[in-house]
Model the fold of this input.
Amino acid sequence: MLRPIDSATRETKSLDGLWRFALDSSDLSAPWSAPLPGDLECPVPASYNDIFVQSPSLRNHVGKVWYQRTFRVPRGWAGQHVYLRVDAATHEGEVYIGDKLVVTHVGGYTPFEADLSEIVKPGEEVRVTIGVDNTLTNQTIPPGELKTDDAGHTKQKYWHDFFNYAGLARSVRLCSVPKTRVQDVTVKTDVEGKVGKVAYEVTTQGEHNKIQIDLLDTKGAVAASATTVSGTLSVPNANLWQPGAAYLYTLRARLTSSNSEVIDEYTLPVGIRSIRVKGIEFLINDKPFYFRGFGRHEDTPVKGKGHDDSWMVHDFELMKWTGANSFRTSHYPYAEEVLDYADRHGWVVVDETAAVGINLSIESGILGGVKRKTFSPDFAGDKMQEAHRQAIKELIARDKNHPSVVMWSITNEPASQEEGAREYFEPLVKLTKELDPTRPVTFANVLLAPVDKCRIADLFDVIGLNRYYGWYVGTGDLVTAARELEEELHKWAEKYKRPLIIFEYGADTVAGVHDVDATPWSEEFQSQFLETYHRAFDKVDAVVGEHVWNFADFATGPGFFRVDGNKKGVFTRDRRPKASAHTLRKRWHGKE
Done:
């Protein structure tokens, strides 16, 4: 799915701003057929949960909400293909134009489009209503269950440890493109000696006489060109996209008529680089790369998961200050603006689906309760697997051209030690590799599935590990934690002989709590915890990366397990550094 752009032949119109807003209810019939009742307005993009302080029930609302506004189709769009693009609706969206349903979509973190060409007219004022449902079930990614208590109240149960923010958290845009147009572009890059290789494939819609493909350097000069819809461009002495030193070419695809008139033009940033796994090394441009960085969340006060450019740039600057060079989009695809920024500034990204919480053993093993099978028709069965397949397809379709994305992570902390795990995941790994054979595939293994019990690790090119010795296991005992961690890392390295990345390690810490004895929850303990892990990483050659959990404190769901959210951030939720941020800065700047 091509990202909307403005060009000589294309236009976009932002529909961000304040929308009318209402909760769904039994007495709200056909809310799309008239202006929404009440006086609530909600900003887009933003999660709605924390905005309406006078209605605490909204924060934990389960079900559908409605957004509505009017827009006017520009008069100059006559004869164009017109569509509405929703960058994300968490977790299910349905769009009405007037009283006509034009599109539905399941999946809270990837975009969808509604074709309006036969519905709206240039110059016309149009009412758009979007229903957004945050319900999670065994047919969604991430999964969940609905529970109704004796009083008739419905509650949402889910197994991921972050708050289930919902709504229109990313932009909504009205777009126009020519009816004869570039429909999709796929690029795959490689490096052979000093020659950059850009394999491209362009699909088109409608009749055209000719296609012109040009690869432009940063000065606008043509570095390579072609006149076919697919092929490989060779760039002698190519400027490579490198971690921390991004260089972006521009691929320009033009469709022209018989008299050489430009019918459509689409441009795409292209970073030429190679990605390979060789033995225990992860290579970018044939050079070993060591991942320094974070697991993160799209999470800020008030806006929840709502995208905000100010927060985004500030977060990147803080990560750069620590000496980080990479991050994982835990645990869902992030806003496209984040990847665009990473492309331009040389950040390395592990891109992850929203497949978090496919693990009922955490509930029974850590939290107690009746033991249930994760991989069964009642939970992770055929329906969830199909939703997972679709999530992988949409992730790769959206992010396939980003040079910053070097690896696909298809799940976080699944119950990979349980019977049925391999049958569930093996087809999904195969699908990922078929859709994109150029990038390695990984996952994040949970401690409940150690090296002798995990049934799926051999399927992956790179093995990710989430480990919390000294926190969830043997809390406060860093001496034992160091020994157990190092022993386990050696076992993984010896058995699989492939790169290991520690995707999560950390300890909850309350900013401002200090202790001479470095007790748990103090800033001193968090720093010593990280230092203990770093010493273990440095003793195992197969470890090629460390992503601290977490970049910043974040909101979690209700329950006894957290107090005011997850406090594992090395920055507070409002981005003030804890002592551990300085600990990381000292280590990571020393590993340049």
